[in-house]
Design a protein that fits this description.
single chain; Rossmann fold; 3 domains; 5-stranded mixed beta sheet; 5-stranded parallel beta sheet; 43% helix; binds 1,3-dihydroxyacetonephosphate
């Protein structure tokens, strides 16, 4: 009988912390804990490896541990399952830790878009489907099956370059902002981009708009990053003109254009770390990471500020708490696997193709 979560829900953070440490010692090398940068500190401190989506997918692929506990969101644990061996198990401490952006594209709507595009274009020769890693496994499989590829926020530029060496157009889902910001940074004018509204027939576009576009951007977005506004940069700089601004590419075009640097969570950390002592940073990404950066670099007199005046946590990342982690690990100690993430074999095989293409291109 598995241990029920109800026995853990009332633990204080420090009680859960002590039990996590004890279970980790017992499990030893059979366990690896991966932690995304957006995880709260009480969970993040237990990670063996921390990183952005690309780095953590590499860690999952390289891990020898029997149990890969992913402190992140659902699509990340799916990637860990797809890239690990069959005798390894990926585990997500809370199955409700999803990603609202990933949910904005599903296989049915992407297949419909592909059919509608096929009525106007020779899709298999003209269009490369690209899915942001923030997507379900069956969309990665779709890309694998149609000569496409996965990208993350840290390799999207290289992935787009590769795509245009294969075919003349890209269908990019689910995040319009990452697609737009990346394509523009690679030199593509905004006029060559169209937005596919997945709730409308033919994406709400005319045949001419589709035929002339170089990149078709799915109308998805991150609810956390959409909170950042260009005026917030102006207001902050009016008070502190020396400020450097850095944004995650899920932020809007206007925010990224006003930023000194744009990049993945890992790149944001490296950039702040490498900046001269005393630098003041305004950062457009999730609050847990921004707060951690501020604490980490305070001693170098750097101050790191959150861009939005209102709190915007990733509420799904936040679902992973020390209580769930303690629950998962103590079950493993007892020989019970709770919350395993297992992608069905045929889907995993096609998705692996698209992920492997990504890893090879960004090696
Ligand atoms: P990174 O790959 O940059 O860590 O981004 C993941 C994510 O979900 C950002 O919202
Ligand atoms: Fe998804 Fe946005 Fe949360 Fe990232 S921050 S996991 S894109 S909802």
């Amino acid at each position: 009988m598995t241990l029920e979560f109800s026995g853990y829900a009332g633990l204080s953070d420090s009680e859960a912390d002590a039990r996590i440490r004890r279970a980790r010692t017992t499990l030893g090398e059979r366990l690896v804990i991966l932690g995304h940068h957006y995880q709260r500190d009480e969970v993040f401190q237990h990670a063996d490896f921390t990183g952005d989506s690309l780095k953590l997918s590499r860690e999952a692929a390289a891990s020898k541990a029997a149990y890969i506990v992913f402190c992140g969101v659902h699509f990340m644990a799916e990637v860990a399952d797809i890239l690990s061996r069959d005798d390894q198990t990926a585990i997500l401490p809370d199955l409700d830790a999803g990603c609202s952006m990933a949910d904005m594209a599903n296989l049915e709507s992407v297949e419909r878009a592909w059919r509608e595009l096929a009525a106007l274009l020779d899709v298999e020769n003209e269009v490369t489907p690209v899915t942001y890693i923030n997507s379900a496994a069956d969309l990665k499989a779709f890309c694998g099956d149609h000569g496409g590829v996965v990208c993350t926020s840290s390799n999207a530029g290289r992935i787009l370059d590769w795509c245009y060496q294969q075919r003349s157009k890209v269908l990019f889902f689910p995040d319009q902002h990452l697609g737009r910001n990346t394509a523009y940074a690679q030199g593509m004018p905004l006029e060559s981009m169209v937005v596919w509204d997945y709730e409308k027939p033919q994406g709400g576009l005319t045949a001419t708009e589709i035929k002339e576009a170089k990149i078709i951007l799915w109308k998805g977005f991150c609810s956390v990053h959409q909170m950042f506004q260009a005026e917030q940069i102006d207001n902050f700089k009016a008070r502190y003109p020396e400020t450097k601004v850095i944004a995650h590419p899920e932020s809007s075009f206007a925010v990224c254009q006003k930023s000194d640097a744009v990049g993945s969570t890992e790149m944001i950390i490296k950039t702040v770390a490498a900046s001269p002592e005393g630098t003041r940073w305004l950062v457009a990404t999730e609050l847990n990471l921004v707060n951690r950066l501020h604490q980490q670099f305070q001693h170098q007199n750097k101050s790191v500020h959150f861009m939005s005046p209102t709190v915007c946590l990733c509420s799904t990342m936040y679902r992973i708490d020390p209580q769930h982690l303690a629950w998962i690990l103590e079950n493993l100690v007892e020989g019970w696997v709770v919350n395993p993430i297992k992608v069905e074999a045929a889907t995993a095989s096609s998705a692996r193709l698209a992920l492997q293409r990504m890893l090879d291109i960004s090696a």
